[in-house]
């Protein structure tokens, strides 16, 4: 199999190390460069890579990456930083799969409103493709810039997609109650993620203001073909990894659980990473995998969707590899099962 030369940007972070581990098992990928602000060996940044990848991190230099023959760069950088790094790569013909939020929202003014930052790269925003393969799969082959979806949004978008596509729920006032493990906040230390602050504690944050709200609404709006509004509340859980979302919606007509489960099975047929279950999933069922598990229930006239995933794999690095497979024409599951 012809190997694609890849670079990983932001080498010291959590999504970067997960991505490196997935790419090391991928027969169609060759890790050619890992960039970092730290001039360290990758195994010094991540001891779990000891004996698995013998590579010195290098500073971010688009010309050097081009000279090494890099064909695609995975951006594992914070938002804001991403949109500074990505244009020079695209200018040099290097494709990008961006794990940050910088190219997810089509409208730069919506980005500005929710991220409180000006978007500086309208040119590339215009051709970026939202990398949720189960919904936008047809647009991914050959894409130059893929905006990998957010971790929380995937549980909400995929969890509601069959209902939105068939207009079986009211499209305003959908309630999405989500919980995340602490690795969702990245490796850079912060007070809120300091062990004594978050251990043995559950807290809600960014209530009514979380930046994943417009991302969820944009994708569900595409699926439904009409405007969608959600109330999204994230919570920090005292666990390393995993996301669990409980979603409440009002059906537009009487529906049974059996009908909805059959609808979900049909919608996700041929989509290998979404597992439709009849019992509520747990985050542990998905840990270390690219699976997103979903279960739909009817309770007292409301539709409840329960969805779980691993934030670092399905929520970030795994779906990035799924997108890589789509872009380069590899089977969708390669390197991921
Ligand atoms: N964690 C998660 O569950 C998910 C994360 N994402 C997104 O993926 C991206 C990477 O996330 P994650 O790996 O968790 O983040 P981390 O904080 O763990 O890593 C980000 C890395 O980016 C590099 N970096 C470069 N410039 C800066 C800068 N100015 N400030 C801080 N770091 C910088 C650093 O690497 P170095 O020091 O080596 O240069 C840093 O380790 C983010 O955009 C995040 O929002 C998306 C979905 C899920
Ligand atoms: C627990 C925690 O802090 N989670 C992060 C998840 C964000 C993330 O991963 O960002 P993107 O998916 O948008 O890139 C947060 O709420 O900001």
UniProtKB/TrEMBL annotation:
Compartments (UniProt record): Cytoplasm
Limits of the Semialdehyde dehydrogenase NAD-binding domain: 5-143
Enzyme superclass (EC): oxidoreductase
The GO terms describing molecular function are:
N-acetyl-gamma-glutamyl-phosphate reductase activity
Q: Which family does it belong to?
A: Belongs to the NAGSA dehydrogenase family. Type 1 subfamily.
Annotated NCBIfam families: argC
* HAMAP family registered for this protein in UniProt: ArgC_type1
Question: How is this protein named in the record?
Answer: N-acetyl-gamma-glutamyl-phosphate reductase
């Amino acid at each position: 199999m012809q190997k694609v030369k890849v670079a990983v940007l932001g080498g010291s972070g959590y999504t970067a190390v997960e991505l490196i581990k997935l790419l090391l098992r991928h027969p169609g990928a060759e890790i050619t460069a890992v960039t970092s602000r730290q001039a360290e060996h990758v195994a010094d940044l991540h001891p779990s890579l000891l004996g698995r990848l013998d590579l010195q991190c290098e500073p971010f230099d688009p010309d050097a990456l081009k000279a090494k023959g890099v064909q695609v760069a995975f951006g594992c950088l914070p938002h804001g930083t991403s949109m500074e790094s990505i244009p020079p790569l695209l200018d040099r013909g290097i494709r990008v799969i961006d794990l940050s939020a910088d190219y997810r929202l089509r409208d730069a003014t919506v980005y500005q409103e929710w991220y409180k930052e000006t978007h500086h790269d309208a040119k590339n925003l215009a051709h970026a493709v939202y990398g949720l393969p189960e919904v936008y799969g047809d647009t991914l082959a050959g894409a130059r810039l893929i905006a990998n979806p957010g971790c929380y949004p995937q549980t909400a978008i995929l969890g509601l997609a069959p209902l939105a596509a068939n207009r079986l729920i009211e499209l305003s006032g959908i309630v999405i109650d989500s919980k995340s493990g602490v690795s969702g906040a990245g490796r850079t230390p912060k007070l809120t993620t300091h062990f004594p602050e978050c251990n043995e504690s559950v807290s809600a944050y960014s209530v009514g203001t979380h930046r994943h709200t417009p991302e969820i609404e944009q994708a569900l709006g595409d699926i439904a073909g009409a405007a969608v509004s959600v109330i999204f509340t994230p919570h920090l859980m005292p666990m390393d990894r995993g996301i669990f979302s409980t979603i409440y919606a009002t059906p537009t007509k009487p529906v049974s659980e059996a009908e909805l489960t059959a609808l979900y099975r049909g919608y996700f047929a041929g989509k290998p990473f979404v597992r439709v279950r009849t019992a509520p999933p747990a985050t542990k069922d998905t840990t270390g995998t690219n699976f997103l598990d979903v279960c739909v229930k009817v309770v007292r006239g409301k539709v409840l969707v329960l969805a779980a995933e691993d934030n670092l794999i399905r929520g970030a690095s795994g779906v990035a590899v799924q997108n890589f497979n789509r872009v380069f024409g590899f089977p969708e599951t390669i390197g991921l099962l």
